[in-house]
C-alpha cells in the first residue's frame, strides 16, 4: 500500500508521522498495513498542492492508494487580508488533490474545521447541520470540503477543533509560555468548543483510512469548554503559579470574527467505527506529562 501525506511539517502531519513510526498511539495500536506501507511525507518544499499540473504529475508517478491532506492556511486573522492565498491553499489545494485522487482511484482524507459553522446556538454541531462560516478562513475551508465532495468519490472529510500537539505552535504552548513569563493571563470566556489532542485525531485518521466508511466526520475531544476553561486547566496541570482571569471577546482586538459556539459532536464516529476520542481534560492531562 502507498500513502501520501501532505502538509507533513505541520503539527498534525508530524504527529501522524510519529505515530506511524512507533506503530501505536496513546489510544492504541496502528494497523500493520499502514506501518508497512510505502509512505511519502511532503510539504510545500516538495509539492505545491495549489498547482494542479504539479499535483497530477506527482500523483501519476507515485500512484498512492491513500492521500491524507493535512495542509492548510490556518492563520485565521491573516486570512482576512491574504484572501487569495487562503483560497489557494484551503480551497484549490483540496480540489486539486481530489481530482488527482479520483484519477488514480485513491482514497482522500481531508482535514477541515469547526469554523465552517457560524457559532450560533448551544447544541454541539452534528455532521448533518448546515455550515455557514463567518470568516474567510471558514469560508475557504468549506469550499475545500465542497470541492473534495464534487471531485472525489472515495473521500473522508474530518472536521476538528482547537487542535494542539507536541509539535509546532498551538494554544497550549502559547498559554504555557505566557503563564511562565507573566504570571497573569486574561482569556476569553464567551467562546466555546472542543480542545483536541493531535495524538487522538491522528489515531482516528489512521483508523479511518483503512476503511471504506466514506463521508463527513467530526473528530474532537469529548466535552466542551471555553478558552478560559482550557487555559485554566493548562496552567493547573502544568503546576504554574499564574492567575487566569476570564474576559469577554470584546476586550480583544481581532481582525476575523470567531464563532461564539463551535462545539462538534462526533456522531459519525460513534455510529460507524466507534469514537475512541478521549475526554478533553484527560487528553490534556496526558499531553502535559510530556513537558
Automatic annotation (TrEMBL):
Q: Is-annotated flag, keyword Membrane?
A: no
- Is the keyword tRNA processing in the record? no
In which domain of life is the source organism classified? Answer: Bacteria
Keyword entries, A-Z: NADP, Oxidoreductase
- Pathway(s) per entry: Carbohydrate biosynthesis; dTDP-L-rhamnose biosynthesis
Q: What is its EC number?
A: 1.1.1.133
Task: Write down the top EC class of this protein.
Answer: oxidoreductase
Enumerate the Gene Ontology biological process terms: dTDP-rhamnose biosynthetic process
Q: Which GO terms describe its cellular component?
A: cytosol
Identify the residues that the record assigns to the RmlD-like substrate binding domain, covering every copy. Answer: 1-287
Please give one Gene Ontology molecular function term for this protein. Answer: dTDP-4-dehydrorhamnose reductase activity
Q: Which InterPro entries match?
A: dTDP_dehydrorham_reduct, RmlD-like-bd
**Pfam families according to UniProt:** RmlD_sub_bind (PF04321)
**Family, as annotated:** Belongs to the dTDP-4-dehydrorhamnose reductase family.
According to its UniProt entry, what is the function of this protein? Catalyzes the reduction of dTDP-6-deoxy-L-lyxo-4-hexulose to yield dTDP-L-rhamnose.
User: What name has this protein been given in UniProt?
Assistant: dTDP-4-dehydrorhamnose reductase
Q: Which gene encodes it?
A: rfbD
Amino acid at each position: 500500500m502507498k500513502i501520501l501525506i501532505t502538509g507533513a511539517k505541520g503539527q498534525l502531519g508530524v504527529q501522524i508521522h510519529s505515530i506511524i513510526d512507533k506503530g501505536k498511539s496513546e489510544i492504541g495500536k496502528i494497523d500493520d498495513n499502514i506501518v508497512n506501507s510505502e509512505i511519502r511525507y511532503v510539504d510545500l518544499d516538495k509539492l505545491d498542492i495549489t498547482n494542479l499540473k504539479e499535483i497530477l504529475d506527482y500523483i501519476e508517478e507515485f500512484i498512492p492508494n491513500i492521500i491524507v491532506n493535512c495542509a492548510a492556511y490556518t492563520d485565521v486573522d491573516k486570512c482576512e487580508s491574504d484572501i487569495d492565498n487562503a483560497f489557494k491553499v484551503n480551497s484549490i489545494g483540496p480540489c486539486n488533490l481530489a481530482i488527482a485522487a479520483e484519477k488514480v482511484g485513491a482514497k482522500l482524507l481531508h482535514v477541515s474545521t469547526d469554523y465552517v459553522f457560524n457559532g450560533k446556538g448551544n447544541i454541539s454541531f452534528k455532521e448533518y447541520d448546515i455550515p455557514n462560516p463567518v470568516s474567510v478562513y471558514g469560508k475557504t475551508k468549506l469550499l475545500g470540503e465542497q470541492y473534495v465532495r464534487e471531485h472525489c468519490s472515495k473521500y473522508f472529510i474530518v472536521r476538528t477543533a482547537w487542535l494542539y500537539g507536541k509539535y509546532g505552535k498551538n494554544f497550549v504552548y502559547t498559554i504555557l509560555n505566557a503563564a511562565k513569563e507573566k504570571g497573569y493571563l486574561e482569556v476569553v470566556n464567551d467562546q466555546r468548543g472542543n480542545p483536541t489532542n493531535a495524538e487522538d485525531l491522528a489515531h482516528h485518521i489512521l483508523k479511518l483510512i483503512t476503511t471504506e466508511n466514506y463521508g463527513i466526520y467530526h473528530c474532537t475531544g469529548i466535552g466542551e469548554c471555553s478558552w478560559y476553561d482550557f487555559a485554566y486547566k493548562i496552567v493547573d496541570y502544568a503546576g504554574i503559579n499564574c492567575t487566569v482571569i476570564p474576559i469577554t471577546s470584546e476586550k480583544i482586538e481581532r481582525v476575523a470574527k470567531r464563532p461564539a459556539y463551535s462545539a462538534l459532536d462526533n456522531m459519525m464516529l460513534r455510529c460507524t467505527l466507534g469514537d475512541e476520542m478521549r475526554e478533553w481534560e484527560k487528553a490534556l492531562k496526558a499531553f502535559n506529562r510530556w513537558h
